[in-house]
Amino acid sequence: MAVSYSLLVLSLLALANAQLQAINGRIKITVGTTSGCGDYTVNFITTQLADAYEEYKAFLDIEFVPWGRTIQNADGTQTCQFGVNDCFANRLHRCVLDQLRTNQQAQMDYMLCEFSPPHPSFLQRSYECAAAVGLNLVTIDVCVATPLGDHLDAAAQAAAAEPMATINFVPSIVFNDQIDVELHTAARSRLKSMICFALAEVPETGVTNCQI
Fold first, then answer.
1. Which pLDDT value is given to residue 12?
2. What is the pTM of this model?
3. Cis peptide bond prior to 120, omega within 30° of 0
4. What is the CATH architecture of 21-205?
5. How many CB atoms lie within 10 A of CB 147?
6. Pairing between strand 71-72 and 60-66?
């Protein structure tokens, strides 16, 4: 019992010591996702990230990398953690996010839609969430079905490689392009608090009254 208690204390101290910093008053958050992750990724996006974004969106740059543990096979096919639906939905996510690359709010709305019931692209192979953010579905379908999407696959594979190798968890959470396992772990349970304290260190943001 004493050993277990000591490990718990050390874990709590590690979380407390994980300190996020803003860069020029802004914080970049890169989230590695996979569409079929129905627990950790859903919880992070729909609770931690959604809440923090709603409060501090003016100071945040959000980037999603829908790749997860996908393996690119030599024959050009992919093997995904949660099967063929995972591969299809991840590719759809990449195509949609690319179309929305200049609209962060629409990207957030889209990913919240995809990771909320009924999980349209993963469970239903549906373009419902793409339609909900106003995209041309023919354009999206062309991207999903042709080599236009291959370029996005390669970019996502490259972007996911180092975070997955180091963090080895989906979702992977990276701040300001610097991989830090302690910050990733802390963000899964107290993202809003971390962002608040980081922004409060920059007087120009006007952020105050942070709580753990």
1. 45
2. 0.90
3. no
4. 3-Layer(aba) Sandwich (3.40)
5. 8
6. unpaired
What gap in Å lies between CA 137 and CA 124, rounded to an integer?
16
Read off φ and ψ for residue 71, nearest 5 degrees: -115, 125
Rounded CA gap, 50 and 191, in Å? 10
Identify any residues that bridge with 72 across adjacent strands, giving them in sequence order.
Answer: 78
For 195-211, write each residue's pLDDT tens digit: 999 999 999 999 999 98
Phi, psi of 51 (to 5 degrees): -65, -45
The answer for residues whose C-beta is within 8 angstroms of residue 15's C-beta and 6 or more apart is: 182, 185, 186, 189, 190
Question: Hey, is 27 helix, strand or coil?
Answer: strand
Residue type, 67: W
Domain ranges of the chain: 21-205
**CA nearest to 186, candidates 10, 8, 44, 18:** 18
Question: Which residues of the chain register pLDDT less than 50?
Answer: 1-2, 5-16
